[in-house]
Amino acid sequence: MITIKNLHAKVEGKEILKGVNLQVNAGEIHAIMGPNGSGKSTLANVLAGHEGYEVTAGEVIFEGKDLIDMPPEDRAREGLFLAFQYPVEIPGITNTVFLQTAINEIRKYRGLPELGAKEFLDLMREKSKILNIDSSLISRSVNVGFSGGEKKKNEIFQLLMIDPKLAILDETDSGLDIDALKIVAKGINVFHNDKNAVIVVTHYQRLLDYIVPDFVHVLYDGKIIKSGDKNLALQLEKEGYDQLIKEAAEIEA
Amino acid sequence: MAEEYKSDDMKVVEDLTSSEYKWGFVTDIEEIKFPKGLNEDIIKKLSEVKNEPGWMTEWRLKAYRHWLKMEEPKWPKVKYDEVDFQDIIYYSAPKKKPQYESLDEVDPQLLETFEKLGIPLEEQKLLAGVAVDAVFDSVSVATTFKETLAEKGIIFCSMSEAIQNHPDLVKKYLGSVVPYTDNFYAALNSAVFSDGSFVYIPKGVRCPMELSTYFRINAMNTGQFERTLIVADEGSYVSYLEGCTAPMRDENQLHAAVVELIALDNAEIKYSTVQNWYPGDKEGKGGIYNFVTKRGLCKTNAKISWTQVETGSAVTWKYPSCILQGDNSIGEFYSVAVTNNFQQADTGTKMIHIGKNTRSTIVSKGISAGRSDNSYRGLVKISKNAENARNFSQCDSMLLSDTCGAHTFPYIEVENKSAVVEHEATTSKVNEEQIFYLNQRGISTEDAVNMIVNGFCKEVFKELPMEFAVEAQKLLAISLEGSVG
Amino acid sequence: MANSNKPNIKDKYIKDFELFESKLNGQSKSYLHSLRKTAIEKFKSAEFPTLKDEEWRYTNVKPILQSEFIPAANAGEITPSAGEAEKHLYTGFDYYKLVFVNGIFQPALSDIDGITGNAIVSNLGSLKEPELQKLKTHMESIGDSDNAFNILNKAFSVDGAVIFLPDNFILDKPVQILYLTGNEKSEILSSPRNLIVAGKNSQAKIIINYQPLFDVKYFTNVVTDVFTDENAIIDFYKIQNESEKAFHIDKIDITQKGKSVVSNFSLSFGGALVRNDINVLLDDEYIENHLYGLYLATGTQHVDNHTFIDHAKPNCESNELYKGILDEKARGIFSGKILVRKDAQKTNAFQSNKSVLLSDSATVDAKPQLEIYADDVKCSHGATVGQLDMTAYFYILSRGIPADLAKSMLIRAFANDVIEPIKIAALKEQLNHQILQHLHSKDF
Prior knowledge:
The structure holds three protein chains of three kinds. Chain A is an alpha/beta fold.
């Protein structure tokens, strides 16, 4: 689904990603973990095409297409979805209008007919049930006046509505209490099937109790220093990153 | 969305009436054209041609004599070539003959805009000056509307007709809120106004329809010096909409209108404007100068609400105001002003609190793009005896380019200690994080900006009658086309 | 548009200048006098502001123009005792002291012992040629912001405080500049011309304290220029305590260079008619500017505050907070303009003006303005007019505190945002006390 080769990227002139390699196939869930400042969020934003991040080397192939020079809206229309770490507030625009516009733009791009009002509302009703989202939330402006937990839930709601091929979840678990975390995880599990893929970017292992990853990667100083299965996450939870970082440094040397 | 609650049949009816009313407004003078320039003889002749009574002629002359002593205001933050008042033709008979035989002859760019705005075909023809089917120009439907209004005793006619048929009302209220001494352009308008609308709502009557439906087309030929007078008698209500979302081209560069509203005890007037006069081309050539005086007077418990969406004109100079004379009266001003390319707008409001327990609300949203300049200028005055007056003002500006300007000039004058006045203003650019978020959901930058701008203006749009709110949104998108990214 | 003030007041001041010049002897060829001569020439074609001038629409200067003030240089000198001067100083902390009477420096009453190095803490009238050379570039101009009053100051400016800080110089104590004004025999025009030049990395705290020598009518007409070079940090406290019969017109021009920080306090207590203009030019990047203002007015006092912040370069921040408390028949005005020029991207500019009216006859006018030509900026202003917090008032009363004390407490609380940032603790305390004392109306 997505192949990342030797990806280097800069933020405000400073190199953050220093050669990331990653292969994600349909049906897989990948977790990317790492200490603060290791480049996890940078990777997520670079893949989504944030213009504040400058790709200096490497390539990203998504469903056979080179992403690097593609504007962010086209990446989204190709099927890449980023659940933001800090979802943005848009005053005056309701969730309904926002999602209807987004979905129909994506459908237009793919040559599909636009969703009619009824089909769209039915879809909203169905998806909001999965997440126990209150219908009043849907008629409010996008993320305006939402609590942190509501914002994160809203990201997952958008994920279910848009139904992309690849979902990148940037610290979606941060700031969620255990009940909210379970609902969010449920949403992600409902979304996931053998035709799509998920990249979970997280600092903690906790989310991975509910979303079982096929692969776990440790990102440190802009590189993936270790990959493994879900047990790697458990090991990290117990031992912390220090040991791993030391080992990686030894190999480097 | 407008279509959802308004059946197509309704629309046809409206179109029919509008078209009828347009012709109804036209007086019987044909092909009269005055020489250029302005003097007492011209005014006398103008009054004579319109068959006006002596008191009207006298009033015009007084206004003219006063105007001669006045100077053009220089304080608005706008620059424009000086107007040569002797180079203007102050009267020409309204054009009766259509310009074109079919839509094929009309400027395709104009038609494209009509299309984007979703204006019905027959209406497009009228707006573009194309000959309309004879059936369309029928009398019967209009009569039904006239009858509905007449049953309730509502008077809605052209100012010329009102001077002929309702001289007492006109005499009593014309110039009572905006005297001819008020300012340079109000004086000029008083001397030479060509036509306009007159509305009288009798005591306790709630006008059963938006008076907008007529006006949409009527606005076409009211000329450059328009005069509107609306009187809502005790306990009555009226909602009035002027202007049109369709781009209005006009050979007259200067437009100096005067609008006076009188809301007597317990009455309410809602006045909405969509202004889309020709703004000039991308290089700033041409375009209308729109210098307007609008003011309303509120008696006890009365309410006047101004809502405006200003996207047109090369230069706009306009401050719809409320004099809150009666106790417990309420004034509101909701405005969206968009400037692009080389447009200049200096607009805002005055809220003059005189009565006790008076309230006013100001919500102004300015959007500047291109090389334009957009200023909010407003006055909130709490007079000495205005106990417990309250005002809240919110003035936000959004900048879409680094070559435009956004300015806020509020004046606050308080002479009573029980007043609470709050003014807030912010200026910011369109937030890049918001655009990225929308991009990431598959929405293009152009659409993202439109969404953000519409969200920014929502508080004002919700004050507009529904169908115009929808059109106003589309209008905003068209006005800002190509201004970002 | 000739002003028909009987007899033409401009002619009077021009004649006064001729008289002043005739008594100068040798000094008439001096550099300082050449500046004054340029100013009087300019004054001849200048017009005093009227209500028709947008920037003066709320302040009528007729009372000033109808009086015939005698320029201090033409009037007899008076020298108060050290004890008399002492009464007017803020105390309880160490400071250098510059004392002026009717705008003329009093060496005997001043104390600048301990100023070291190349720093200058002195007065305009006694500057020597090499010192003048250092300061010349900051002294010559009559700028666009000069109105007829400012030009009049420059024509009659024989003296004023001068502070020059060389690069890296940190002044160890604050400087307190005391202006004592008034003469029992004649109505005096005092024309202080202050100049503060702070070199790179220099720091100083400066207090300028305007006080009456006699409780009579006089006119203080001040111009103060402040220049801060890169990384300089200047705290400037202007405290206006003039006689309630006096007129006070003051213009402060502040020009800042990169990364410098200026905190300017403008505190107005006295005066019959007061006008404070503060113009700030942020002429480089990463500058910080803070303007704090407090105006307490009662009786028939008229206090007009004008501020103008010119964001000329990117990445600067300005913060402005002005608060007014108006009692009896007083009138308070705040007009603040923020200009963000085209190149000044990433500007943060915030302005807030709050005032309370304590009496039925007090009035307040506010005109906060934003004029913005750059798009990547965050600017806001807010203005509110209201009364003291009545809920808090009843809360205090309910704890057994008498009404007038409760009211004073609330006034102090209201003024607190402006007073709190003052860095000299003893000064802060005395100002707080002064605020409590200043207003004494019973009804509100």
